[in-house]
Amino acid sequence: MSTELERYAAIGDMRTLGLVADSGSLDWWCWPRFDSPSVFGRLLDDDGGHWQVEPAETVVARRQVYLSATNVLVTRMHTDAGVLELDDLMSVGEDRMIIRRARCVRGTVDVRSSMVVRPDYGRADARFTENDDGTVAIELGDAPPLSASASVPLEVHDDVVRSSCVLGEGDSVWFALGVGGSELDIDAIIAETVDYWQFWTARSTYRGRWREAVERSALVLKLLTSIDTGGLIAAGTTSLPEVVGGERNWDYRYVWIRDAAFTLYAFLELGYATEAAAFTDWLTDRLANCADRCTAADRPPLSPLYDLDGNDDLAEETLDHWDGWADSRPVRIGNAASAQMQLDIYGELIDSVYIADKQSDGVSLATWRHVCTLVDWVVEHWDQPDDGMWEARNGPRRYTSSLLMCWVAVERAMRMARRRGRPGDLVTWQQARDEMHATLVDRGFSDDLAAFTQTLDGDTLDASVLLMPLVKFVAPTDPMWTGTLDAIGDQLAHGPLVDRYDPEAMDDGLAGDEGSFTICSFWYVEALSRSGKVDEARRHFDRLLTYASPTGLFSEEIGPNGRLLGNFPQAFTHLALISAAVSLDENLATRNPS
To answer: What average pLDDT does this structure show over 254-282?
Structure first.
């Protein structure tokens, strides 16, 4: 039986990420990058590899928490004989290591460690060498080698690195895996890592009502942001299903353009200008690289997603030898959505550049030229069908949210041109912008539903239109919008949980139902807040927070039974949480000024 996602917490070093269960098992870790093949993959298959540190005695109670304002994890395990605390972290210094320190808080605990290494998603064998200095060298094939070390002897038996010891009250033992040396000052490494995260968290300027949840969300975003490139991956995992036993299993270890505006907004709202600037640089690199593709007839200038280096050739394949989480197959690596046409990403990218332009001395002239080239392409192609924000696999359609974000692309470019007197074909742009607006109002709104619809001339709802007031397409108190908000509440919401659409009413090319999309649930909160329904928004927001894991993490979806589903932790969800919290704080302050 697969471990529930709520029982996992994430650790990382902004280059890769691991998931540690409250049983003390590190069940997911890719090396050396987020998108590299896994070394520990028991999350997706029982024989996928793991690293367990636990008491030999029966554990009668367990709990996971993060040290305050850090990504340093503490797992507390109680036995009849004593209490064991396990610290888990990835170092942030020059030496890249996973550090696991077990400490007996009370009584006596027999501690055992067992490391089962399964490189390349379990498709390769590791080779072990026991060295004279007590370390174990681990060869992983094509991946960089690792070194295992500990404060107690390590032994290799049947390709498993094992160790055990008895700890009395106050005693501790440590284990390390990475590229560090054999002479390690573990206490200093842990202290340095704690200081790093606490110093970073202290830079936040957020002082609102939901500081704990916003702080944890910011730490998740930082954990998922590449320290090398500035790109933010969507999640640290692949193929955690949107429905148990179903086929909606995708690889999210890539950078989606769609996250762009929300990432910049979140970092800037919280005072993290350095992170916002780094992601802006990553985005403007995509602008420069896509300019030459604007003249190509066979493909759009932007891909919906890229790897951290900016490559968009992300061929999708399945790992047929793995059973998947909770027997949910297939297990996929790569993502075929990188080849889709998704028009909404142009609005999200240019909105990001617009935000960066406002918050700085202005983007470069070269970047502006690339923006103009991209906007000209949008003006030529906005009336085409596409695969949509939800990356449906049933063929192109005229999605309302895709057209909405094309409108954003042109509207924001016009603002940028006028704000700083930049050149641009404003006459053509304005004509296209106004035509998009009229099309959205005339064909994207159903009089029968009294709401904006999923597709032009359609008759079904889609939670993606919750972005309309957020991107300032419509006033949040406009009757056309309030009717839409009421319809979404009636048809797609289950209390605070909001579905992205009704799978029975839309053939998205995939079998099975799915959970409520957590990002849509937070968008709903923000839309309610902006529309003046502040008390209702606050009630929904407070209840949404109760669906987080015990350590405050969210996945992509919340299932019908209230459990977390989908890849985990999910950046987009935590971005939306921050945005909703900031909006709610502002509207509560306006209604009840202090």
So the answer is: 90
Q: Are 333 and 250 in contact (CB under 8 A)?
A: no
The set of residues, in sequence order, having a beta carbon less than 8 Å from that of 428 and lying 6+ positions away, is: 376, 379
Burial of 172 (0-12, 13-18, 19+ CB in 10 A): middle
The string of pLDDT tens digits covering residues 93-134 is 778 999 999 999 999 999 999 999 999 999 999 999 999 999
What token pair was written down for 566? 């989908």
The token duo for 115 is 């490391």
Residue type present at position 224? L
Contacts of residue 533, Cβ cutoff 8 Å, sequence gap at least 6: none
List C-alpha distances in Å: 6 to 155, 205, 286, 496. Answer: 33, 29, 35, 19
CA-CA distances (angstroms) from residue 433 to 355, 392, 406, 429, 438?
19, 26, 8, 6, 9
Are the C-beta atoms of 174 and 85 separated by less than 8 Å?
A: no
Distance (Å, rounded) from C-alpha 449 to C-alpha 460? Answer: 8
Question: Closest by alpha carbon to 583, among 36, 318, 139, 206?
Answer: 206
In whole angstroms, give the CA distance from residue 205 to residue 167. 42
Q: What is the pLDDT of residues 467-526, one digit of tens each?
A: 999 999 999 999 999 999 999 999 999 999 999 998 777 776 666 678 899 999 999 999
Task: Give the whole-angstrom CA distance, residue 496 versus residue 584.
Answer: 15
Averaged pLDDT of the chain = 94
How far apart, in whole angstroms, are the C-alpha atoms of residue 1 and residue 305?
33
| Rama region for 559: left / alpha / beta (φ>0; ψ in -120 to 50; rest) | beta
Q: Which residues of 421-434 are buried (b: 16+ CB within 10 A; e: fewer)?
A: ebebeeeebeebbe
* Spatial separation of the C-alpha atoms in residues 119 and 115, rounded to whole Å: 12
Q: Is the peptide bond before 479 cis (omega within 30 degrees of 0)?
A: no
**Coil, strand, or helix at residue 143?**
strand
Looking at residue 224, the DSSP 8-state letter turns out to be T
415-425 per-position pLDDT tens digit: 999 999 999 99
For residue 512, the model assigns a pLDDT of 64
The closest of 267, 417, 275, 264 to 352, measured between CA atoms, is: 264
- Residue 509 class from Cβ within 10 Å (0-12 exposed, 13-18 middle, 19+ buried)? exposed
Using alpha carbons, select from 423, 411, 419 the residue that is nearest to residue 378.
411
Q: Answer yes or no: is pLDDT of 174 > 80.
A: yes
Name the token pair of 33: 């990058």
Q: Compute the distance between CA of residue 286 and CA of residue 284 in angstroms, rounded to an integer.
A: 5
pLDDT digits (tens, 9 = 90+) for 283-305: 888 888 776 677 666 678 999 99
For 378-510, list the strands marked E by DSSP: 445-446, 451-452, 493-494, 497-498
* Helix, coil or strand: residue 120: helix
Name residue 416's amino acid.
Answer: M
- Cβ(14)–Cβ(222) below 8 Å: yes
C-alpha–C-alpha distance, residues 257 and 304, integer Å: 6
